[in-house]
Amino acid sequence: MELGRLEYLQALVTEFQVTDSADAKEQVLANLANFAYDPQNYEHLRRLQVLDLFLDTLGEDSEALVEFAMGGLCNLCLDKANKEYILEANGVESVINCLSSPNEETVMSAVTTLMYLSTPQSRRQTTALPVVECMLRFSLSANRRLSNLATLFLEDYCTPLQVEEARTLSKHTAVGIPLPKD
């Protein structure tokens, strides 16, 4: 049974790598992200370098591909070995970049992933001042899911001093003012 699972996952990875169809890539990546939810697949997905596939895909132009890759990383980073791999691969920076996505699901997965990736060693990066400022903005969102998740992030992962510093800086910036068009 396990050999069949590995072979199936390998077939998905191969299909993602060889297909020229954008729709097929999205469908395959969505399937891999769903398989990343099952701890029985963690070792297979590590062996097939799916963590690298997800991390690399975060830089794609396709919002759908980024959404599925971010969701897959979010599912995988609950595992200690996967978390360590993502941290060692400098994945936090890529996850932080997804906070500015126009896709709500991508942003939700990015916030959750930052929570899961927070360790005493990574906390300086996962709760850097720009991240805390971003969470403050998200906490004021009309979107209840995003607002609640950002509030939880601020309360559980940030120190009161970090939050206050971000609030003070936010008062002196032009957040929310659109940039002029070329």
From TrEMBL:
* SUPFAM superfamilies hit by this protein: ARM repeat
Q: Give coiled-coil spans as residue ranges.
A: none
**Pfam annotation, one family:** Arm
Q: What is this protein called?
A: ARMC7 protein
From the UniProt record, report the name of the gene that encodes this protein.
Armc7
